[in-house]
Amino acid sequence: MKKSDFHFDLPPELIAQAPLPERTASRLLWVPPVGADFEDRRFAELEALLAPGDLLVFNDTRVIPARVFGSKETGGRVEIMIERLLPANEARAQIGASKSPKPGSTIQLDAGGSAEVLSRDEGFYHLRFDVPGALESWLQHSGKLPLPPYITREADSADALRYQTVFAKTPGAVAAPTAGLHFDDALLDRLRAKGVQTDYVTLHVGAGTFMPMRVENVQDHTMHREWLNVGAELVQRIRRTREAGGRVIAVGTTVVRALESAMRDGELQPFAGETQIFIFPGYRIRSVDALITNFHLPESTLLMLVSAFAGRDRILEAYAHAVAQRYRFFSYGDAMMLWPQSDAAEDDA
């Protein structure tokens, strides 16, 4: 299987550069299994597409202001993108500089304080920050929000609200779980009033989610690491939902990654820790019955994940439809609701 098998042509003007005025104003492409037609809907119609007893599973991670700027001892400028917060004011990070800083060197931070380079591994740096107080708190007033690289503008005050889900709770992500951005409190209230259940995983989305695949053979790719937590109460709720005939619907690929990482011997189990799970066609997703997701980059691992769920040909057909109908793509773009490919289609994949 080749990376190029997941290519599609996307006009640059379809890449959403800013959110719509209302979260639920996005469009929603309904993608049933092969044999049924696509439907162009509005995200605000989601209530009509769900039934009492269904369970929506969200990712409650919270995006931290993870971009920090400074200067090397030589005076060269540095941009630090924190990948993960670690104990003792340490962090795993990417560093952008004209020349890579060496272990043992110190970066003076524009907002005050410094960061010592402890080591480098797989393109990431291990840093120790000397800043007032806890690093997480310091970042809240000194860091900058890390918008995705395909958004060609600086983050503004509106992004601090809109590049964050309304249910964001646990700080640690450097990118938003974007399928959740379409939900506002009013929609969530209507869904709960209808009898639709909601629950949460935590998966801290890392900067590695934007790194392009650098190998042509898909099987040769090594995924980045992300930290997650699937709690015991959620596991029990998922079991009860399915026993009662309800559907488990993942809101975002990060939820799928979390739940599939928590599968043990075909059963969902509580799990907290790191995952490097790589889901691509040939892998059968068993933890969810449907998936709400945004549109993903060509040749990306996330496009491969949704292809594993709904079938590569079906996904590429849906993306071609979305391009023709001028859907908005990527983080601030529109959404799709996917149903799994049939067993017959899966056998042919």
Automatic annotation (TrEMBL):
Top-level division of the source organism's lineage: Bacteria
GO MF term set: S-adenosylmethionine:tRNA ribosyltransferase-isomerase activity
Reaction(s) this enzyme catalyzes, per UniProt: 7-aminomethyl-7-carbaguanosine(34) in tRNA + S-adenosyl-L-methionine = epoxyqueuosine(34) in tRNA + adenine + L-methionine + 2 H(+)
Keywords attached to this entry: Cytoplasm, Glycosyltransferase, Queuosine biosynthesis, S-adenosyl-L-methionine, Transferase
EC number(s) given by UniProt: 2.4.99.17
Pathway as given in its UniProt record: tRNA modification; tRNA-queuosine biosynthesis
Protein's cellular compartments: Cytoplasm
Gene3D superfamilies: QueA-like
Coiled coil: none
HAMAP family, per the entry: QueA
Function: Transfers and isomerizes the ribose moiety from AdoMet to the 7-aminomethyl group of 7-deazaguanine (preQ1-tRNA) to give epoxyqueuosine (oQ-tRNA).
PANTHER family named among the record's database cross-references: S-ADENOSYLMETHIONINE:TRNA RIBOSYLTRANSFERASE-ISOMERASE (PTHR30307:SF0)
Similarity comment: family membership: Belongs to the QueA family.
Assembly, per entry: Monomer.
Protein name: S-adenosylmethionine:tRNA ribosyltransferase-isomerase
Record organism: Lysobacter soyae
Gene: queA
